[in-house]
Amino acid sequence: MVGIMDEETVQLLENIKSVAEKHPGRLFDVLNSLNINQYRSKKWLLEKLNQYPYHFKNKTKDSIDIAVLGGWYGFMANLLQKEFLIKPIREVHSYDYDPLCKKIGEIFFPTVKFVERRIEDVEFQNKSYSVVVNTSCEHMEQSIIDEIIARANENTLFVLQSNNYIKVDEHINCSISLTEFAERYENKLKNCETYELNMDKYTRFMLIGTKQ
């Protein structure tokens, strides 16, 4: 069996084994962060982001920094490192307030810079992020998301995802439609492109735009 697997798959299995040994209570959550819906929605994000037709902050820089908010175990950050095509990336910072996300994430994705911090405590105006990605808007109070945008530098590119999956208790900020989701940012972001993806049990919404 091992003989037909590539090196990346073998390493993934070794990483899962390490989590099972060191943090057994988190194994299901880690596997959930890598499930097919997570993969589909994040690959979809990269596809649309790479096609985004507008320029963003510091477009003359040789390389850029990206922040991922609510980054969990770093899967989104890792995909950005591998597949973001618009500019070379200097660093991707994955923010999550859960200290185990950092410890476990560093097992899977050692090139990602994990930051243990609540996103409302990040001083975005003092950071050099050209792109800010948040695939977990449904998990965050709208006032916190609005404040993050307000504190970001002008022309920062925001990539935001949410959904209409209201049956999950942790989803405290769902949108009922793509239109409703987009309306939340119409006075905050410009050059907006909106998208939706059918995920069978729910619909995922996405907006890409630059801070006004």
How helical, in percent, are the residues? 25-40%
Q: According to CATH, what is the topology?
A: Rossmann fold
Largest sheet: 7 strands, mixed
The main sheet orders its strands as: 3-2-1-4-5-7-6
CATH architecture classification name: 3-Layer(aba) Sandwich
CATH class assignment:
Alpha Beta
Topology:
Elements: H1 7-22, H2 27-33, H3 36-50, E1 64-69, H4 75-83, E2 89-96, H5 99-108, E3 113-116, E4 129-134, H6 142-151, E5 157-163, H7 178-183, E6 189-198, E7 203-211
Parallel strand pairs: 1-2, 1-4, 2-3, 4-5
Antiparallel strand pairs: 5-7, 6-7
Write a structural description:
The protein has one domain (36-211): Rossmann fold (3-Layer(aba) Sandwich), CATH 3.40.50.150. It is globular, with a radius of gyration of 17 Å. Strand 1 (64-69), helix 4 and strand 2 (89-96) form a beta-alpha-beta unit. The model has no long low-confidence stretch (mean pLDDT 92). The chain is α/β, with parallel strands linked by helices and 212 residues long. It has helices spanning 7-22, 27-33, 36-50, 75-83, 99-108, 142-151, 178-183, and strands spanning 64-69, 89-96, 113-116, 129-134, 157-163, 189-198, 203-211. Strands 3-2-1-4-5-7-6 form a seven-stranded mixed beta sheet.
Core attributes:
single chain, alpha/beta, Rossmann fold, 7-stranded mixed beta sheet, 7 helices, globular
Summarize the structure.
This protein is an alpha/beta fold and 212 residues long. 34% of the residues lie in helices and 24% in strands.
